[in-house]
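Run folding on both entries below.
>entry_1
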Amino acid sequence: MAYESLKKMALWCTSLLLGVFIAVVQVHGQSPSTEGFISIDCGATGNSVDDSTGIQYTTDDQFIDSGTNYNVASNYINASLPKQYLTVRGFPDGDRNCYTLNQAINDTKYLVRASFMYGNYDGKNSVQKNSPLLFDLHIGINIWKTVNISDPSTPFTYEAITLISAGRRLSVCVTRTNSSSTPFISLLEMRPLKDTLYPTIMPFPSSIFFSGNLVLSMRHNLGGSGNEIIRYPDDPYDRIWKPMNITLHEVSTDKTVKHGQFDQFEVPSVVLQTASVSAGVNGSIGFPWDSPDSHIFYYVILHFSELELLSEKDVRAFDVYLDRRSMTTDYSPTYLEGSADATSNVRFAFSLNANRRATRPPILNAFEIYSMVVTRFDATNVGDVEAMLAIKEAYKLKKNWAGHPCFPEKYAWDGVTCGNYAKEIRVIAINLSSNGLVGQVSNFFSRLTEIQSLDLSYNNLSEKYLLLWQLYQTSRNLTGNCIEVPDALIEKTKDGSLILSYSSLMLNHSFVNHEAIQPLSESRQFNMESGGSLLPYTNFQSGVDHKDSQLPLESRQFMYTELENITKKFSRILGKGGFGIVFHGFLEDGNEVAVKMCSLSSEQAPNLFLAEVSQFESALRVM
């Protein structure tokens, strides 16, 4: 979204928000619940319970399959450090590593929080006073924040409010900023929010409200005592309210501050029970806030509640100014009822100034500041993502396939190529050559309907009848597997609509397995590597002594019809080896050969078949 468009939208929102957010109603009491909470203790080997909140934390094994578990160094452990910070998951390998949070509910707003405490977990003392550890944090395909670890003993926390669009997986990723920055993470937490909370975030696309992430800059409870931090269970959404004093004068109450069903922030009562006030009736409360980036809008929410029961003669009334421009005039908070004033701008110099009729100074109970980060809409086809993850699971692939397969482009999945089709990103090519794939060809490949190139060569795949012939790939490489290729697929190669590479049968002099089959004399070995239509290629190491190079080796391709002629349609069987039938035949020059076919009836056949292929290729290279 262009800067000027965002600015106009923000100004429009300002007038609407000021008219809507100053509303108070009574809240219906209910005990806080952790239902829907996702609490991950990264790097831990067992589940745990936080001593202060009672929130249960789980290990991260089910959310990520990359990275390594580490313990922080013992000299960084103390009684005040929560036990969830004693372990981390570090990522020494890969430029992007992602947590996939399938438990998150679509069309739901979430508070997402990631925490980091280095604690010299890797023994490298990577964090020094003048040399912080830097790496990037992403929500899905969008940058969240640059993590800046400047103290090895301090937990650093980053928080955002995001909306999960329908049909989209939520992922949280860490990425390298340079070759020397090794990302890690200590905690990852998600808390579902009501649809009515933080209404500036709306589903994409929206011509009225901001569509993106709200990234927390600061959230403070004013007038609180000491260093007490307020979070769950006092805040049912587990927001962290840090104490702050901006004046020397404070007021408080032990009475409950009420909120209602239409309240759009639901600040906990314990936060609103304290407040800062200006020194005198004619004083003001204010603080400046400068954006480090003139193109970033900030969203500021001021929270108010009257904590003193004023007489009829007393009046607390003040005006809210933003950069000397009046935003709200003659505002009087309601006794023991929460209310809010919210606005967005690039630069902030807030002040609350008492007006002429005031007999009491301005009051402020709490405030929140968020940066408004416009997000890129994830247009990757959901079906393609689901199919790719299913393929990964089917073959137990040890690949860092997490997050989104196509974006950001520099972090696209290994072996995956994407293209743009009708305003949607599709997977158009997959290269899984030599990845140790075992078993049948997964039907999930057929769900990648825009794929143009598929390379499954040199794996241990076996298939009696290849079901992938209905796909519309222009290129397929099935070489080095035990796959029966249907005639319909071969027909496509004749008109040039399909480029097909595969292996079928092997002509050989004798066999590496010691079955009771006698070698045929005076014959040559041939390796048939594509052009057949029955079974994938195999190879056999000759039992003849080649040290004098009396028997030349050569490689040659045969069509299936040629093999039928050579063997007289496979009419004479010489014997049956451990993984295939051997047929007798003659080449056109009269040389006698044996043709061995890979059996599909045995689970071990493809492995043994391909093992001899490798041995034969080695023999060819030596000769």
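>entry_2
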Amino acid sequence: MYHPFKQGMSLKIQIYGLIICISILSFFVRIIIDVDTTRDYLQTQMASHAKDTATSLGLSISPYLDTDGLIIGQTMATAIFDSGYYSKIRFVNTKHETLFSLENPTHVDSVPHWFTNTVKLSAPTMQSEINTGWIIAGTLEVTSHLGESYLTLWLHTKRSFYSSLILLIASLLITYFILQTIFKPLKAVEKQALLVTRKRFTLNNKVPLAHELRIVTKAINNMVLNLQSTFDSLAKQTQALTNAVYSDPLTGLGNRKSFENYFNAVTHSITSERPMTATMVTLPSLVNINRTLSYQRGDEYVTDVAKILKLSLAELNNYRLCRINGSTFVFIAPYDITFLYNLHANLIDLFSQKQHSSHNNGYARLASINVEKSLTLSHLLSSLDTKCTIGESTIDANIDNKIVFSVEEWQKIIQSIINSGEVSFSVQPVKKSNTEFTQCYFEVFAHFIYNNEKINNSHLFAMAEKLNLTEELDKKLIRDFINIKMQYPEDKFALNISKSSLYSPEFIQWLGAFSQHYPC
């Protein structure tokens, strides 16, 4: 017995049926979506219009809310109400008494009832509190009229229906004549082969009913699978190599090399109209957490900061965030530093909320500067690193080379002070107030001199701690002050030294040996 479908249904019939079904379905879906979109737009527009009118009208009539001027306020409301865009305007005082109310009928004659019953629009009512000076006089309520919105929606629906219908008929006619003249059974196979040449490995999962295309389609699919497998293997190897070179394995962010490439690529486009800001975030407590807790806790610390940065930067359209070393993140964004001020302030606030006892040196420090076109990467990173070290969180517009030194320069300065630097001292007496101001001791203040200029003590000791030179700096301070102490052996002096030196056994041992030579 002969079965016509055993040989496969004609491809021509399949395509005709598919095109007709899709076209009709698209016709109805397009109309439904179009009407629904327009309805949402009109609904939003009415709400916005009512809100704007309530606000502006409320401001306009606020000077005329006394007994004598209320008629003026009602006249102003009537002038706006007569435009026909509102179904109700009502002013209610604080005692819920209606002082005046204007209403329009909601019936729409030019729109069929079946349409208004099918497509529902709701008339939004917006309110605005009206003040007379510092006192709330009442509430102005404005309700939009549905007439214009329904009329607009009805006219738009008719236009959409007729245009879509014409387009559907024209499309079917054109498709019919085209398929009649240029129909080719191997069109899908040809397209699939072309996509392979563009590295798009798509499979024809629906095996054609036409007997002529079954074998060809299966063969092409097998070929695509083999090519895709080979290509995916090569792509994975390439991606693995790229990740190893340019990605940080812990956070998935770019590494130092990735940031260098991006910085070199974008700095040439910096102009006054297209500024750029670089921000560094350091984790000063990471070393302590790794040492006292565990490396796992340290990794959690790093990933937490990375998550905070990613979420905070998500609002920016274009930026690059990288982790350039274990405890340092850097992100660069094409915005002026003033524009990013709120973002930076929010980051500082988030960091302060995260801080707890294990963060002995703080949770995170942040510093930002504007990037200039002539600025080198090493100078940028050095300046940011210095700013993060000397201050908890700083946001400066420009790099001041007279104040900000690189880490290498700070090391030379501190080493020079330790070896042969000048230290000046000033004292302040400390007395007891309850014993007729009996003097207890003298508080000593040290001033370090470099190139005939005083160095900021907080900056100096912050960099000394970063470079592990704090103990040597404190030794220098004690050695220089002992000469002054020997001149006043009967007086007591209080000399401040850093916390890290007090907790250092080596420093305490040195201090004990030094005090034996200078018992004064």
